[in-house]
Amino acid sequence: MANTVTISPEALQAQRDICRQIADYWQVRRREPLAWVDTYGCQQNENDSERIRGMLVECGYKIAPTEEDADVIVINTCAVREHANQRVFGNIGALVHGYRRHPGQIIALCGCMAGQKEVVERLRNSFHHVRLVFTSHELWRFPELLQRTLLSGKRVFATEPSDGSIAEGLPVLRSSGLKGWLSIMYGCNNFCSYCIVPYVRGRERSRQPADILAEAREMIAAGYRDITLLGQNVNSYGKDLDCGVDFADLLAQLAELDGDFLLRFMTSHPKDASKKLFDTMARYPKIAKVIHLPFQAGNDRVLKEMNRRYTAAQYLELVDYARSVMPDIVLTSDVIVGFPGETDEEFEDTLRLIERVRFDALFTFIYSPREGTPAAAMPDPATREQKQRNFDRLVAAQNRISDERHREYVGKTIRCLIDGVDEQDQSLLTARTDGNRLVRLPGEAALVGQFRQIRITASGTWSLMGELAE
């Protein structure tokens, strides 16, 4: 296990000083520069982008809604699936037209793709309009890297491999004033054979409990009502610290804070999920009764090849215990179809597992090889057509189960957080149950931000319909 490196207050102050220098640079030119941040991938990337926006604002930039006329464009990338990589390259290629009209523009790429050597070389050789590339480990140095690019006119690459660090106190510009992300740890030690994340995000690094609690208090005081704790594997929180606080302990401390709010978390690894965690969830009303617990495959041989370090029976034992202490818990999961070597018979075990568990929702994927992972070198005799056929069967089965699970809500009255106006029908509001199920209901926009009792009147595969119960 790597030692956690904490960035010193002096080093962070130096970055804040650079922010002021960049702001002065633009003030002398009597301009309010524009910046645009585009985010791909997981909630951790969204959280990182909020910090990038916070630093840009301290540097004097105004955050623009699109890339049009932006002086700085930051593309925060995901490397989990090949499709995401290709989308990023396509969109970066399209930015060359704006760059030619605005040659002083700085186009930056950061995030997980920047941690892949082959991606960096492709950017260096084929995308000359990308002027700044940096990994997630270098995010805290963004002001310094931006200033160097701005003043030198040269391309800057900060992509050396690293186990990562912890930088506390970075400025943040959150996307919402109602729901917020709160990172409790970074990196991953699991090395699932299909996953690139440990190679690009580094080893697990847990934040100190006091720093997490302080940020949570700030968010609650600012009016946040729905707070999601983030980590690649939150269940292993604290293993790299010598403070005697594990994830269940941290959850309990957060749930005891004053205020009207709800706590969620993601993602959980089944090998580290514990009865203590589920008991803690059951004990505190402020902890949402929902867990995203990826099982990935229902066959033990495939799970072993994936290096998941649990069996289907052990997974089911966890689910059964969680439901014994929280009968109404909402369960969601991830599934990979077509892992190298998976047979049709082994896939049937996955179907049997979802019928047994009856998840509220699944996030389903056809296996996507990632260069540099063990799975990418495994024999893979199944055809794309076979994988697609099994994938379609999985989706059809889960859609049926989700529809059936949603029907069970009809007639119930549930406390929900009203979180916005429906984008598809402006006459409706949207709300979320404790279990994060989407509810659409009539009501005034003034209700947004309130917890209210909602009577569920109808259901569909993807959402519920309701009305105020008062």
Description:
This protein is an alpha/beta fold. It folds into 4 domains: 5-165, Rossmann fold; 177-280, Transcription Regulator spoIIAA; 289-408, 2-Layer Sandwich (Transcription Regulator spoIIAA), CATH 3.30.750.200; 413-468, Nucleic acid-binding proteins (OB fold (Dihydrolipoamide Acetyltransferase, E2P)), CATH 2.40.50.140. Helices cover 36% and strands 22% of the residues. It contains 14 helices and 21 strands. The chain has a 6-stranded parallel beta sheet, with helices on both faces. Strands 17-18-19-21-20 form a 5-stranded mixed barrel. The chain is globular, with a radius of gyration of 23 Å. It starts with a strand and ends with a strand.
Number of helices: 14
Overall average residue pLDDT: 95
**Helix content range:** 25-40%
Bin the strand percentage: 15-25%
- The name of the CATH superfamily of the largest domain reads Methylthiotransferase, N-terminal domain
Number of strands: 21
Q: How is the CATH topology of the largest domain named? A: Rossmann fold
Widest β-sheet, arrangement of strands: 3-2-4-5-6-7
Largest sheet: 6 strands, parallel
Query: N-to-C terminal Cα separation, in Å?
Result: 54 Å
CATH-scheme architecture of the largest domain: 3-Layer(aba) Sandwich
Rg, alpha carbons:
23 Å
Instruction: Write down the oligomeric state.
Output: single chain
- Secondary structure class reads alpha/beta
- Structurally, the number of domains stands at 4
Q: What low-confidence regions span 5 or more consecutive residues with pLDDT below 50?
A: none
Q: How would you sum up the global shape?
A: globular
Quickly name the level 1 CATH class of the largest domain.
Alpha Beta
